[in-house]
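Hi, here's the filled form for the chain we discussed.

Project: internal
Contact: R.S.
Residues: 507
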Amino acid sequence: MINENDKALLAAKGITEEKLHQQLECFQKGFPFLRLHAAAGIGKGILQPSETDAEAYLKAWDAYTDDASHRIVKFVPASGAASRMFKNMFAFADADYDAPQTDFEKTFFEKIHSAAFFQDLNDACLRLHGKDIDALLAEGAYKPIVKAMLGSEGLNYGALPKGLLKFHNYPEGARTPVEEHLVEGALYARQKDGSVHIHFTVSPEHRALFEKLVAEVAPAYEKHFGVTYDVSFSEQKPSTDTVAANPDNTPFRKEDGSLLFRPGGHGALIENLNDIKADVVFVKNIDNVVPDKLKEDTVKNKRLLAGVLVSVQKKVFAYLEKLDSGRYTMDELREMLQFVQKELCTKNPETKMLEDTELAIYLEQKLNRPIRVCGMVRNVGEPGGGPFLAYNPDGTYSPQILESSQIDMNDAEKKAMFEQGTHFNPVDLVCAIKDFRGKDFELPAFVDPQTGFISHKSKDGKELKALELPGLWNGAMSNWNTVFVEVPLSTFNPVKTVNDLYRPQHQ
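And the returned structure, exactly as it came back:
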């Protein structure tokens, strides 16, 4: 099945033949649905800190950043193209009518003057058509405006990543999401020496544009906030690509006979995260940013989540040192078990049966793992995953972020759990990725490989099956210690469509 050309391609990508066969096996076997214990909620896996607790957590973070030995990094997945954001406007450009018909199209043109990219688009229209936007609107020439926004001869927004688009207006000029993340980094991820480490994952074709933008804008923000930025970039590794398959699960081949590989989805970024050298890493999507006037909530809650993380880590490390020394009492083991069950919400009914030495081994296994604290917001019907207590292969159940594709919707009980969930995942994570001895965890070792999923796509007019790796905050972090904390909805303002930029939160 594998020929010499295939072997050369695998070697160039850094994928073993064994890995290829495992992927093809996934198509045959599929992925099991996850077994749910319950949807997580307040008092059931989601922490709702009181004002006093919140103050203590904020102080804990301030004390942590006051120690110069701690390295803090902000990690922003930014490789996604903005094409989905403009899906409606692409459809309008190709429609057989010229004037806006749908509510979406009408809103886009009615509010166009408030878009942060208005000035750039106006200049592009003048350059391409010798007329500004208002003149084009007056004569009903709507499509030239859209084409100037999306096409490569204009702003090329249809092919750029979200991170490079102008999102927010300020008196001194419009800002892109990249800039908003630079500002955020200065406000909550600053180190004692004034340095701010930010890492963006980008696609290879856009890397130079990101580097150029950061080089242009960073000095002004450094001066304003009195910080020094250390901005780095990486791309998804070719070794994380996955092979495509035909509907009969045989390898899909392109017209030239070569195997088709596709990017493995955001779960591939666990490799990029694994390369980061840091004690604490903030993870947040590129498009979830707000203007300065609304940043206060975001900054406070980011610091709060980080405070919860370092407070939990302090306890975990103290317990691991005790277990490591071999000098502990049965009461201390019971206290550790209580902590794993209550604060880390990880339970196994079998622990009652364990002897002292077995219990100590179990506790060491459960405590010595990367830790993440995830902000969760109240469910307001947004699409996306949610917080659950789900069973693991070893019989424990623990907090997990699940997508609907991982849940058996034909099972009425499971479907009800998913639909009645009170919270959902805004991708607001703070992670601790070193062990109690100060060594880096090998993050790929904590991925649950059984949590990938298969989607249906096409290429050259032929159907294919694509394999998505376990998502970064889903199965890729399945075997981490996880704490869910409620954060206010004001911290979640993603931009999924271009019209979202007209919402008050982005004005």
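Let me know if anything looks off before we file it.
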